[in-house]
Amino acid sequence: MSDLPNCPACQSEYTYEDGLNYVCPECAHEWSKEAVAEDEKIIKDANGNTLQDGDTVTVIKDLKVKGSSLVVKVGTKVKNIRLVDGDHDIDCKIDGIGAMKLKSEFVKKV
Question: Which segments constitute the Protein YjdM C-terminal domain (predicted)?
């Protein structure tokens, strides 16, 4: 198993290095090594711990659900988070509420 990234176009695992680029033999997509380094954004929780997909976090502040009278209470445990790009960088499902997006600054890693 190699440490090379999968192809961003077709998700093939058979990429190889060609000078300053990565190349996918299945779809012929080429991308630079610098682009891969820039894409790796590190998302941290309120305490500075690095978050990853699949982590379990706890909400540290009461959060109002926009467009509803529901509130996500302090201490609510959220399992199996998924990190996404954007202002709200955590995508998750909360029991009793459903699918939500959260900001990493309002959670801490368990």
Answer: 43-110
Do 62 and 105 lie in a common domain? yes
User: What is the pTM assigned to this prediction?
Assistant: 0.64
Same-domain check for residues 76 and 31: no
Full domain range(s) for residue 78: 56-109
User: Mind listing the pLDDT tens digit of every residue in the chain (110 residues)?
Assistant: 568 888 888 888 999 999 889 999 999 999 888 766 555 678 999 999 999 999 999 999 999 999 999 999 999 999 999 999 888 999 999 999 999 999 999 999 99
- CATH label of the domain that carries residue 21: 2.20.25.10
Number of domains forming the structure of the chain: 2
Residue 43 covered by a domain? no
Pairing of strands 77-78, 57-59: antiparallel
Beta strands (DSSP E) in the chain are 16-18, 21-23, 30-32, 57-59, 63-64, 71-72, 77-78, 82-83, 90-94, 98-102, 107-109
